[in-house]
Amino acid sequence: MYQAKQQSSGPSKVLIFGAGNFGSCLASHLGDSQHDVYMWAREENIIAHFNKYHRNPVYLKDHAFPENITAVGPAPPSKEFIGGMDVLLFAIPTQFLRENLRTLRPKLNVDKMPLMIFVNKGIEIGTHALTLEIIADTCGPEIAKAVTFISGPSFAKEIVDRQPTSVSVASFTEAEADKAAVLFHQPHFRCYTNGDPIGIELSGALKNVYAIAAGMSDGMGFQNNTRAMIITRGLSELTCIGTAYGASPLTFLGLAGVGDLFLTCSSPNSRNYTVGYRLGKGESLDEIMKTLGSVAEGVTTAKGAKTIIDDLGVNAPIASSVYDVLYNGKDTRLAVRELMELPPSRELELPPTAGKPARQLMRKLGLEVDSPVPQWQTMQTSQASL
């Protein structure tokens, strides 16, 4: 039986899996908040360099990290080490999450569980699973029901520079979402809780596909009208896909939805936008991925998104066109022309049927799915005074 560890009122011990751009950024944020932070990395050179100089030699290289952060690894942390943590935070690309959770599961004490937070954004290749389902498959439904997701418009460099930022913190378990919000909340980093982790996950994954589309548009020389069209129609598609999946349509109007979509579609600091921009300039996907220097999850997410779109039977021409450019060799200008030549249609339309994939996932988690009031609506109502 799952039993959450009692959170202390003082500093927490936090283990972050992943020393990439965002994992490093969150380590800095939590270290700056006086928590004791351990950042696990696979690369020995990163570990040695970080512990000697308090700088990451690969990501955020100009940033001086707080001294209460220790890099650990490359071997997986021991059961005893994990047992001493209050928080486990996962900043691992979605495609590598399953294998890491399988290794971790025997080391978790379900009678004294740390708070588990996930910040990855993607859909698993092959299974087309969201992170929630990966967690349920590897760690069990009781753990999956209590995990927390953080998502929103949050570039790493701006967070470490303490620029004002807000994010969504979502979980099926309200108490766990509240804990994560308190852990991260600072005057420059505001957290809003949410009871729709499925919608938060879909937003975080799918917005990367539309960021590739926006980058392609800019790379081809199109300007503000076109970018605004892609963002707005992308939001419409995202909402339609998410609602058909079983998420709340309101989630896509929040920070993890339109907020993150706008950010990633309008800034060259977005890796996914950069992939699209270079495609629009005529570079091949192979060359871009070889020289990008970091993971652009939208490239792999486009595969899972296409399968979900087809399975749900929803109309998402922008996301489908991005898939065709990435994986079917379609010319970017042909893709744009075909999109613009589509016949007129209604601007806003939700799918006639909704919820089958979410109901299946919630049954896997052992959550009630026949209630007339969805889980996300119940939590949103309880949080209305915030």
From TrEMBL:
InterPro entries given in the database record: 6-PGluconate_DH-like_C_sf, 6PGD_dom2, G3P_DH_NAD-dep, G3P_DH_NAD-dep_C, G3P_DH_NAD-dep_N, NAD(P)-bd_dom_sf
Record flagged with keyword tRNA processing: no
Domain Glycerol-3-phosphate dehydrogenase NAD-dependent N-terminal: 13-174
Primary localization: other
Compartment(s): Glycosome
Binding annotation for NAD(+): 18-23, 96, 156, 271
Keyword Oxidoreductase (UniProt): yes
Entry EC no(s): 1.1.1.8
A GO CC term assigned to this protein in UniProt: cytosol
GO biological process terms held by the UniProt record: carbohydrate metabolic process; glycerol-3-phosphate catabolic process
Any one GO MF annotation of this record: NAD binding
UniProt xrefs under SUPFAM superfamilies: 6-phosphogluconate dehydrogenase C-terminal domain-like (SSF48179), NAD(P)-binding Rossmann-fold domains (SSF51735)
Superkingdom of origin: Eukaryota
The name this protein goes by in its record: Glycerol-3-phosphate dehydrogenase [NAD(+)]
Taxonomic source organism: Macrolepiota fuliginosa MF-IS2
